[in-house]
Automatic annotation (TrEMBL):
InterPro entries, A to Z: C2_dom, C2_domain_sf
SMART domains, alphabetized: C2 (SM00239)
Species this protein is from: Cyprinodon variegatus (Sheepshead minnow)
High-level lineage: Eukaryota, Metazoa, Chordata, Craniata, Vertebrata
PANTHER family: C2 DOMAIN-CONTAINING PROTEIN, DYSFERLIN-RELATED
Name of the featured protein: Multiple C2 domains, transmembrane 1b
Length: 687
């Protein structure tokens, strides 16, 4: 066995991958097909200096060290910048050797991608120790094989440990962006449309844009992960949003987090370095002890003492301590079966990614296997019990982006604690199944009171979200969803109207008596009580029926995807016509209200004044309870007094007489052009 010490020094003339003519390079080392190291990212630099060291234990010199360089792109797939091999057999042992690796891309063999400078030291293990171990194990002939397997297991454990440590964060930086003051104007009107960008290592966050102001009030809160014990440097830039062209740079500032005390909120006013203006922030550094990756033999919740400590931390007696720490979730990623073959060999190199809001951890890669066994345990902090755990399976490729194999989304409140369950993998949109099954065992422990408090505060937004795209299928799906909601309301309205129409005498009599009793005895506490009764009724009688109806409708939507081109075209046309008509109705209603108060039609505005004065007089003299009773009695007896009367709504009938803005334009009289008068045309006629 050998000890391999590598110092990653710098890169020279690396490839340009960003539009600004630079790159954000980082380096990955792979040994025996496993990732053993990932460097930090050097932003906007083609000649980066890393000066990072790593020590590995190697049991064979036949496997070369595979070095790859990537350009980091936030929210996108990282760009490949080149790779090279370091052949360990060619290294001189027991001395430090400078190595220059020329980067290549087999798809572009003639492109100059630059080079990396390393210092490598290869040292064999102590000979005396090797001799002692060899003598000990040669007493039994078969023990030599055991020693070989033991060495491989030790190396695998070391590689897994490196992979694990590269993912875990040591704390959380909670940032509240309050406001900016006296920013530099960038627009011709003397104002700006400012937004702020934050970067801490590979993590980025972009605030919302505040229109036409030099003193924006953002009032945004977000969290970033702290990977370095020293804290790191938080970089902040402020930009002016410009539609149709490149955004203008306003200014920047930096915050060294190592200077801030932990477990304390700091109110900071940071001046911008390259222009005038100040940013007002609240920054809090807190430790994060609940995030971990372990083997199945080291499951945190299966240790009785640690479990008691966790249950005590989230007991009801601790309900008002650290309200952000709602609970923990432990996920055992056991194995997958029957995965899709993504490689030309008919195999895949699967790894698993777990995401809980903005927290992201992943397993190691199992190479050339469609039935991988990871047997890892992941532990996350739960900041919102309504969060959804997303588990995605990918196929690792050497120099390309990972191929998607499947995904499942599991709401934490739907988890059955301690039960191993097989989840069928779905497609990226989570609308249909794909090939493969993943086996998980999840356990969630949380404080009920903290979870209830968190329910009524804004939910955490994901930093990385896909840009919305125009989709005809999605448009039709959303239209059908809105249509279903409206149809439910209309069905309730129709049912109530049948009571007024006396279609069923028994139902109308019961409804009339119930209306009189409720109105006569009504108190405000009856409103929430009525909603409670509705919820209880639906819990016992409606949940299963509505679920089956929704499943049938979803099945109809999936079946509609297989329709022909003309059927889809007619369906989209119907959606557009319906949306167009609905928008016209809503706009016309609003415009008619506005025109009533604008005296567009003086007669109708006068009628409105008379009706409102009468309503004011009646409400002043008569209690509201009696007026509602009178309205209800009139509504119930209208059909009995005149069976052939056409039902109507007086308010809507009144508004239908008020013209909308479109009708006002149609009724507008055009002025006659004097040059086009008939008399002038006759005088200019030569005949």
């Amino acid at each position: 066995m050998y000890k391999l010490e590598i110092e990653l020094k710098r890169g020279h003339n690396l490839a340009i991958r960003d539009r600004g003519g630079t790159s954000d390079p980082y380096v990955k080392f792979k040994l025996a097909g496993k990732e053993v190291f990932r460097s930090k990212t050097i932003h906007k630099n083609l000649n980066p200096v890393w000066d990072e060291k790593i020590t590995l234990v190697v049991d064979s010199l036949s496997d070369p060290l595979y070095v790859k360089v990537f350009d980091y792109d936030f929210g996108l797939q990282d760009d490949f910048m080149g790779s090279a091999f370091l052949y360990l057999e060619s290294l001189e042992q027991q001395r430090t050797i400078p190595v220059t690796l020329v980067l290549k891309d087999h798809q572009l063999p003639n492109e100059d991608l630059g080079c990396l400078e390393l210092a490598v030291t290869l040292t064999p293990k102590n000979k005396i120790k090797n001799r002692f171990l060899l003598t000990l194990f040669l007493t039994v002939k078969t023990s030599v094989c055991v020693w070989g397997r033991l060495g491989q297991q030790q190396q695998s454990m070391r590689l897994t440990e490196v992979h694990r440590k590269s993912q875990l964060w040591r704390g959380i930086v909670s940032i509240t962006l309050i406001e900016g003051r006296n920013l530099t104007p960038m627009d011709p009107n003397g104002l700006s449309d400012p937004y702020a960008k934050f970067r801490l290592g590979p993590q980025k966050y972009k605030s919302k844009t505040m229109a036409k102001t030099l003193s924006p009030q953002w009032r945004e809160q977000f969290d970033l992960h702290l990977y370095e014990e020293t804290g790191g440097v938080l970089e902040i830039t402020v930009w002016d949003k410009d539609t149709g062209r490149r955004d203008d740079f306003i200014g920047r500032c930096q915050l060294d987090l190592s200077t801030l005390a932990k477990e304390k909120t700091h109110h900071l006013e940071l001046p911008l370095e390259e222009s005038r203006g100040i940013l007002n922030l609240l920054v809090t550094l807190t430790a994060s002890a609940a995030v971990s990756i372990a083997d199945l033999s080291l499951t945190p919740l299966e240790d009785p003492e640690e479990r008691r400590e966790i249950l005590k931390r989230y007991s009801l007696r601790k309900s008002f301590f650290n309200l952000k720490d709602v609970g923990i979730v432990q996920v055992k990623v056991l194995r997958a079966e029957g995965l899709m073959a993504a490689d030309v060999t008919g195999k895949s190199d699967p790894f698993c990614v777990l995401e809980l809001n903005n927290d992201r951890l992943q397993t190691h890669t199992i190479y050339k296997n469609l039935n991988p066994e990871w047997n890892k345990v992941f532990t996350f902090n739960v900041k919102d019990v309504h969060s959804v755990l997303e588990v995605s399976v990918f196929d690792e490729d050497r120099d390309r982006s990972a191929d998607f194999l499947g995904k499942v989304a599991i709401p934490l409140l739907n988890v059955r604690n301690g039960v191993q369950k097989a989840y069928v993998l779905k497609n990226k949109e989570l609308t249909g199944s794909t090939k493969g099954v993943i086996f998980l065992e999840i356990e969630v422990i949380y404080n009920t009171i903290k979870a209830a408090i968190k329910t009524v505060v804004p939910a955490e937004q994901k930093y990385i979200e896909e840009e919305p795209k125009v989709s005809k299928q999605l448009l039709q799906q959303n239209f059908n969803r809105v249509k279903r909601c409206i149809m439910v309301l209309l069905s309730y309205g129709t049912y109530i109207n049948t009571c007024f129409e006396w279609e069923s005498s028994q139902r109308s009599i019961i409804a009339f008596i119930l209306f009189v009793v409720v109105v006569w005895n009504f108190e405000l506490y009856m409103l929430p009580l009525g909603l409670v009764l509705l919820l209880v009724w639906n819990y016992f009688f409606s949940s299963s029926r509505e679920m089956s109806e929704d499943e049938e409708e979803d099945k109809e939507e999936r079946d509609s995807e297989h329709k022909g081109f003309m059927d889809k075209l007619y369906a989209i046309q119907e959606v557009f016509i319906s949306v167009q008509s609905a928008l016209d109705e809503v706009a016309s209603f609003g415009e008619r209200l506005k025109n009533t108060f604008n005296w567009t039609v003086p007669f109708l505005s006068s009628l409105a004044i008379a009706a409102l004065c009468l309503a004011t007089f009646l409400l002043y003299l008569i209690p509201l309870r009696y007026l509602v009773l009178a309205w209800g009695v009139n509504k119930f007896t209208k059909k009995l007094r005149d069976p052939y009367r056409i039902d109507n709504n007086e308010l809507l009938d009144f508004l239908s007489r008020v013209p909308s803005d479109v009708q006002m334009m149609q009724y507008y009289d055009l002025k006659m052009d004097p040059g086009q008068s008939p008399n002038k045309r006759r005088r200019t006629n030569p005949s």
